[in-house]
Amino acid sequence: MKIKELSIPESAKQIIIKSGITELYPPQEEAIHAGALEGKNLILASPTASGKTLIAEFCALKHMLEKNGKVLYLTPLRALASEKYEEFKKYTTIRKKSGRKVSVGISTGDYDSSDPWLERYDIIVTTNEKADSLLRHRARWIDEISLIVADEVHLLNDAERGPTLEVVLARLMQVNPDAQLLALSATVKNAEEAAEWLKAGYVTTEWRPVVLKEGVLLQNEVQFKDGGARKIEKPTKNPAINLAVHMVQSGGQALIFAGTRRNSVSLAKKAATGMKTVLSKPVKRSLTRIAGQVRASGERTRISELLAELIQQGTAFHHAGLSGAHRRIIEDAFREGKIKVLTATPTLAFGVNLPARMVVIHDYRRYEPGYGYYPIAVLEYKQMAGRAGRPRYDKIGEALLVAKTEDERDYLMESYVLAEPERIWSKLGVERILRSHVLATIAADFAHTEQGIYDFFGKTFYAYQYDPQAIKGVIARTLKFLFEENMIEVSGENVYATKFGRRVSELYIDPVSAVMIRDALLSRAPRLTDISFLHMIARTPDMFPKLRPYSREIDDLALFVDEHREEFMFEVPDEWIDQIDYEEFLGEAKLASVLDAWIEEMTEDETIERFRVQPGDLYRLIGTARWLLYASHELVRLFGHKDLLPHVTELIERIKKGVKAELLPLVRLEGIGRVRARMLYNSGLKTIEDIKKVPLEKLTSLPMIGPKLAKKIKEQIGGFVKSREWKKLKRGKEWEQKALTGYSRKSE
Ligand SMILES: Nc1ncnc2c1ncn2[C@@H]1O[C@H](COP(=O)(O)OP(=O)(O)OP(=O)(O)O)[C@@H](O)[C@H]1O
Ligand SMILES: [Mg+2]
After folding, report:
1. Which of 3, 455, 466, 646 is most open to solvent, judged by the fewest CB atoms within 10 Å of its CB?
2. Pocket test for ligand 1, best of 18, 42, 52 (most atoms within 8 A of CB)
3. CB proximity list for 363: less than 8 A, separation 6 or greater
4. 23 bridge partner residues
5. pLDDT tens readout for residues 441-486
């Protein structure tokens, strides 16, 4: 079937054809036959790279251009949301019936808002978590959604991300039963079951546009699924690296998945040694430029330095310890074909399009603290393998596992290459996860009676797969907890959220976190300091990422706890009696001291050295801390502890910028971060008044301040500024307001 023959508006076809797509892939054709364009609910379960997104685009165009509809596109990750947002922007030249152009919006942060501004967009791309929070705020425009697309829907199976997706889908079906639902999934065994739950039809195929040759590597021989084999040369000791280098020599690029960050780094180093002879001069030149970009973005650390060095040799590693900026630079450079061998942890396995002609799955086992090693699921293997051979980039793809022995080779062949993906199972039925969703159901007016709550959860995938009764016990326990903690009240048949409960639901925090914060604020510490508040949020179950103390840190942390004993809002467990609790407390103390180090201006490199916390973790930690401090601020207000407001507000601002309080006026200037602000302060320019008085030449003579920045600074504080901006700066308390916006939760 040709794009030309589709029943979508001509203007849309033109854009698709212009992007190089003229004919439908077979799974796409099947989806059309199954009624995708007639508004039918569908699950599309087809292999990686089979073009699932395009079906969503057809449907979206149909809705927007012919039915004046609105589209919600759900993704599990922020990075994926941005990729899709960029892709959909190509449609913004099309005019709708109203004469207005198609518009695309994205929203992935700030969980305490209904984002009314999203209303003006035709396609709204969000993460599942953001969608959940929008539903809790009862964003009005949700009623106008006529098409819901859920991407990577097999993640229902994921213990962390699955339940949110499941609740969001169940809620959307509840509030907006007429909307069309399109779920995009990897091939899974029980697509039919998921489809029944969603009252949808389903299309499953095994078709891929680019042949993916799967196999296992042992020493210097690859054995393929189809029985073929190939020998490779052995320039280095590591067979996976030899394979990758071979791929680069024949003009391709390779992506190596490692099980841990550490392995991804060591593999990248090994790959670099194998790459010496294969890079051309022009490629080397652009690699030097990219390495420069890495060095110039953010603070210099041992990680950014190593990364830059490896990039110069045509390789890089990609993991969650890197800052978002560095990850983007690497992804772009790999897409442009400059970086030849990329090693990565599995977060890069979801839905992204990369030019990897070869994927090597180096570690098929994962380590879980307290549990040991376990082999990954076939589904995860398929996701990783599926990054190879993407249609825009390559004509053929190879995905290989690495075995050390013949037995292992047979095992891998059988258990992954020839195996079928598993069934997916709902992970919703756990109290830890349910309590926040049960509260939200009441607080956001999705149900008003106990029966209503059971009815709602009776429509989840969990209830569908197991038994509605199975979830009832957990919900009853949760209701009791919420009642006892004053988040809900009961009147006859009816259940209502209290003011507290409603706010907790909107703030998108775990009710248990809210209880901790509420009680801490009441009991207070004998001496209230930054540590008091930082430890308070570190203790909540919402704190993420969790940091486990290393054995060599234990003594220092114990000392830290002793020194700050008076400042904690919670009692320190007895080291000898409650050993487990005490160790947990040390973990919280570690989190608090990392955050404290950040606002005391410790450099990122020192943070890595002292705490083994890498920039990516640090930024995620800061993001979570901002969100939880904001939530604390709101609870401080709610419970009338006015005396605490200034301290919490200042902390939010300091966490945001990573500075001591004395630098706050300076970092409020655009272009001035923590490092420059410290430099200005130490050169005697301590206040805005000081900077106003200093001559422009003096300013430019300071390190890290060029003429452009100097002018910008002067303009901001009253040189050549517009009167409107000037007034804004003069308004003394303005920053206090600013401090309270733009926080965010987990970033991926
Ligand atoms: N009919 C088509 N003709 C040519 N290229 C296509 C066609 N449909 C999709 N593509 C291209 O195929 C690539 C893969 O598509 P897409 O990202 O939608 O895959 P997917 O099925 O979502 O895979 P994954 O499961 O990995 O997310 C994209 O670059 C897309 O532009
Ligand atoms: Mg996809």
Report:
1. 646
2. 52
3. 257, 258, 259, 260, 263
4. 2
5. 999 999 999 999 999 999 999 999 998 888 999 999 999 999 999 9
